Amino acid sequence: MEQVNYNKLRSMIASCEWTFAKTMPFAPHEYIVRDKCPLTEEEFVYFVNMQREHGVKERWGNYNFPYLYIDDYKYWTMGAPIEETTVINRAKVNIIKEVSWLYTEISRIKEDVESKQPHKVNTLFDLEPNETKVSKILAGFFNQRQNGKYQVLESFVKYAFGKDLSSQIDKPIIIAEDTVEDKKRIDILVYEKGKYAIVFENKIWDAEEQRNQLANYINGMRTKEYGFEDNQIYIVYLPSTDEHGPTTKSWKELMRKAFEERYKSISFKEGIVDWLESDDLQIINDQSFNLSRLLFIDYLKRIFHLTETDNMENQKINEFIRKELNLSDNISNNIVKLTAKFNEIKECENQLERMRKEYCSELLKEWSGRLAKDFPSCNRYEVCTNKRMATGIVLPYKDIEKAIFINLEFIDKKICCGAIYMPETQKMREEMQSIDLIRPFWESKDFCKGVDWLFYKYIELEGAYDCLKGLIKRMI
Questions:
Q1: 20, 79, 383, 399 — which has fewest CB within 10 A?
Q2: Is residue 281 domain-shared with residue 135, that is, in the same domain?
Q3: Of 233, 264, 285, which one is at a domain's C-terminal end?
C-alpha cells in the first residue's frame, strides 16, 4: 500500500476551487469534478486512491465511506469504481474551532465600534432589573394620570385591543404581583369590578412556562373575589420577541380559542418599544413620565440590540460575514450558504449541549454521593431527565413524610438553590410560608418567591454544593 504524501495532497487541494453543494444545505459540504478541476487525470486518481486506502470508515445514513482527514477537512467519494468516480467531496470537521473564531472576530468588531462611540449612562441597564422589576415599571406607567385620565393605560389598551375597551377605563385598580387561583401570581392585573380585567404575563426573559399558568389566571378572575365573566377577561402576553408565545402547557387549546379575540401577544422587542415611541405617548405633557419612558426605551433597545451603535455593528459584521462566506449578488446562493452555516453552528450547539448535560448529570451524582455522607439520616432526592436535573433531600412537615424538597437544580444554563413544595403539600403553602423556619427566607431580599418554590436564588457553580449544605443544615 502506497504511503500518503500529505504535502502533495495539500498542494492539489489548494489548486482547486471547491464548489459548495447548494442542493444539500442540511449536510454542508463542497466538491470538485473530474475533468472540470485543475487536477490532472493522474492526480485525481491518486487523490481517490489515497482516500480509499487510508481513509477511516464512518457511517452516514445508509453509507459507510472511508474518510481521509487532512487538516480541518475530511474527504470522501461515493464508492463507484475509480474509472466511474467523477466527484471528490469534502466537509469541515473542526466546526467548534471555526465557530470560536467567528465569535472572536464578531466580538472584536463590536468592541471596535463601541470603543469609538461616546458612553451613555442608563441607570436601568446598570441595575439589571429582573422580571418582577420590569412588571413594576410597566404598572407604574399604567398608573400615570392627569385630570383623572389614565393616559398611558388608555394608550396601551387601545394599542392592544382597540378603542372600545380603552373607552371603558375610568377608575382602574392596577396591581403588580397579585396572587390568584392555585397561588399563582399575576405579573400585572388591571381591572374595574363588573367591567373588565386585563391580566398581564411578563416573559421578558422567556422564563419557563408553568403548568396551567394562563388557565389559572383566568380561573382566578372567575372566582367570587373578582366575579368576572369570560367576555370581560383579557389576556396580554409579553414575551421577549415575536418568536415566543404560550403553549398548551400554559392553557389548553379550547381555552385559547375561547379567548382568541381577547388575547394579545405583544413582545418587548417588536411591540412594547413600538408602543412607547408612538405618537399617543409622545404628546403626553407629563415630564416625569416622559423621562421614565425615554429611559425605558433606551434600556429595551440596549438589551435587544436596537440602538444606533447596534446598527453600525451589524453593518460591519455583515460585511465580515459576506467576505468570509464568499457571498455574492446571487441571493439564492447566499441563502443556501447561510442556511448551511447555520446548520453547522446548530449541530455544534447541539453537541455542546449534549456534553453539558452529561457533565451536569455526573456532577449531580457527585453531589448526591456527598449528601449521603453529610446527611445519612435524610431522604435524598435525585432526578436527571431532559426536562429536569436536580438533587437534594426531602424533609417532613407535620404528618407528611415527603413535604419539602431542599435542592440544587439546573434551570436552563443557571443553577438554582432553594426549597420546593412537594405535591402532597400544595394545600398547605400559606401555612408553611408563615412558620418560623420558612418566613425568614420568604421575607429575605436574597431569596425569591416562585410558582412552585417556597424560596430560591440563583447561584454560581463554584460553591453550589456548600450553599446547599448550609441551607440543609439551617432547615433541619
A1: 399
A2: yes
A3: 285
32: left (phi over 0), alpha (psi -120 to 50) or beta: beta
Instruction: Give yes or no: residues 66 and 145 share one domain.
Output: no
242 and 137 within one domain: yes
Q: How many distinct structural domains can be found in the chain?
A: 3
- Residues 344 and 349: their CA atoms lie apart, in Å, by 9
pLDDT, mean of residues 267-284: 94
Report whether pLDDT(183) > 60: no
State which residues form the domain around 46: 6-93
Any idea which residue has 382568541 for its cell?
260
The answer to whether the CB of 260 falls within 8 A of the CB of 235 is: no
pTM above 0.70, yes or no: no
Lowest pLDDT segment from 133-147, 152-166, 415-429, 448-462: 415-429
Would 121 be classed as within a structural domain? Answer: no
User: Does residue 96 carry a pLDDT above 80?
Assistant: no
Task: Kindly report the average pLDDT of the chain as a whole number.
Answer: 88
User: Is the domain of 199 the same as that of 257?
Assistant: yes
* pLDDT band at residue 88 using 50, 70 and 90 as cut-offs: very high
pLDDT at residue number 184: 64
- The domain that holds 162 is classified in CATH as 3.40.1350
